[in-house]
Amino acid sequence: MKPTLLKKLFKYLRVNEQDQVRLCIVSAVFLAVFLFYHFDLLKRFELVTYDTRWVLKGARASHPDVVVIEISDDSIAKIGRWPWGRDWHATLIKILDELGAKAIVFDVIFSEPSDPAKDAALAQAIEKSKKVYLAEVAEEGGPSKKTKFLTSLPEFARNAKGSGHINLRPDIDGVMRRIPLVFNPGNISLPQLSLAVALDVYGATMKDIRMKENNLFILLKNGQELRVPLDAQGNFIIHWAGKWKEAFKHYSYVEVIGSYAVYKKGGVPKVPMSDFKNRICYIGTTAAGLYDIRPTPLEPSYPAVGVNLTVLDDLLQKRFIHTLSYGQNLWILFFLGLSLLFIMKQESYFKVALFTASVITGFTAIAILLFIYFDVWVNIVYPIFLTALTYFFVTVYNQLSVAIEKARLMKLATRDSLTGLYNIGHFRLLLKAEIATIAVRREKNLSLLMSDVDNFKKTNDTYGHVTGDRVLWEVAAAIKNTCRALDMPARYGGEEFIVMLPGANVDDAYKVAEKIRKSVEQKVFFHEKGDFSTSISLGVTQVSPDETDVENIVARADRALYEAKKTGKNKAVIAADSPKFELGPMS
To answer: Which residue in 485, 181, 162 sits closest to 312, CA to CA?
Structure first.
């Protein structure tokens, strides 16, 4: 059979058999991890590592022009039960306009009509301000499969400077990490509320937006493009400024109105009125039971208005999370697999463990540093999974290889290569150990058989050495099959065999010898020169508990074998000087 191309390549590269197995293991593990990665089966674990990176990254400074006016518990307590009369919002708009706010963004949907006079007051305030942005929600699904929009009343919406959706898109674990910047139901392109505000700040419109290769490009007034990275599903990954109470400037809705009243009367307001000049003011509910609570990587409870506010902050500060593409993460796995193949070739287990730990630690540290300092999200779980799994299986293979090699060497050291029986060197050690045992346990029997294949030289000369080897193998098989499991047969040398029979007295040993003799005598060997049979002669002796000299015992059995040969062969003879005493039957 001609060697395959792969075998030729291995031979050319001088890759030994063990390295070939390691290569197969690494390849199989890589394929398994690739399937996990392709179907994103470890996504939840990766998200946990992502959240941990955010904790390590810590808070950052928010944009100074972004503030939030909260409809909080203290405002509910003073103004009354929500929803309030819309004249309150009209008043707030007028105040912020007078104070010079750059934009007034309501993270509230005024979808139902209320008191006509109060609705008219709000509509008038919106129309006069020309700085108000309103929220809307796109509801997907339903029997018709059409998208429904929950928007503010037409009299509010038509006079607003802009509007945008506030749809949230949590991950599979319910945590907010990403949000769609542009919603495309049918032929409509609806911007996210914060994107609508940011476009006006940059002097751009929805026509200045284009999507390409998981990026959103905004054409700016100076002709340059702002690239906003998106994930594989086209979502914007939120770059968190910090925990809700620590990020942004927070103001109470009722305190802003109350401070303005004090300011107009010439008093010193609790809230400085200058804080709102040229500011983008987000207005949203944060009172208990009124707002949509969302867990984030930094804390378990975060108001939805905070999510939208953070998106605006990211767009204005141009702080974005950059994710590697599917192919880039796959290349990392591939090069990591090649590195592991080199590492697993090391002969030292300590080096393999040290290098593997270094790879895991080093890769994790690099991924964390890239995130903290460069806002780059590199997958951690799949590379660690690949490294750990490879190390486990290669280590198991190495341990099995060592165990198999030890067993092989043990067999070479203790077994005869032709017959598979013990060699005489190992047999002597076993015999010495058994003699030491009966010296202590004097009630225990021990006997020895010495045997020799009759006329073996003639067999070799007539039928050849190959047939002679086959005869020896068959005789050894007959001895092994006739003996009990606890008996220990060995090849003494040439055509001679020796058997130790623990628990057998001389009479029992003689019976075993006869069984062996008959078993060999009955075997027929087929050969082109003619079928033939052979025979075996045996010498039998029993070991006394007082005997310690192995050579004397073996010599006594050998003399009995010589007697069997001398007196006609194909027989078993008990040594004339063998101790004869009854200690018990053969077990």
So the answer is: 181
Domain shared by 96 and 199, yes or no: yes
C-beta separation of 356 from 363 below 8 A: no
Final residue before a domain boundary, out of 269, 289, 322: 322
Ramachandran sector of residue 141 (left: φ over 0; alpha: ψ -120 to 50; beta: rest): left
Q: Are residues 186 and 305 in the same domain?
A: yes
Q: What does the pLDDT read at residue 140?
A: 65
Q: What angle do CA 121, 125, 131 make, to 5 degrees?
A: 155
Whole domain around residue 562: which residue ranges? Answer: 415-574
At residue 367 the predicted structure's pLDDT band, cuts being 50, 70 and 90, is very high
Among 322, 355, 377, residue at a domain's last position: 322
CA angle 477, 478, 480 (to 5 degrees): 65
Span 3-17, pLDDT tens digits: 565 455 445 445 567
Q: DSSP string of 338-382?
A: HHHHHHHT-S-HHHHHHHHHHHHHHHHHHHHHHHHHH-EE---HH
pLDDT in tens, 103-121: 999 999 999 999 999 999 9
Which of 103-117, 306-320, 398-412 is predicted least confidently?
Answer: 398-412
Residues 103, 281 contacting (CB under 8 angstroms): yes
At 537, list the tokens: 């002669």
Bridge-based pairing of strands 496-502 and 446-453 is: antiparallel
CB atoms within 10 A of CB 200: 17
Q: Are 200 and 191 in contact (CB under 8 A)?
A: no
- 83 with 203, same domain: the answer is yes
Residue 318 resides in a domain:
yes
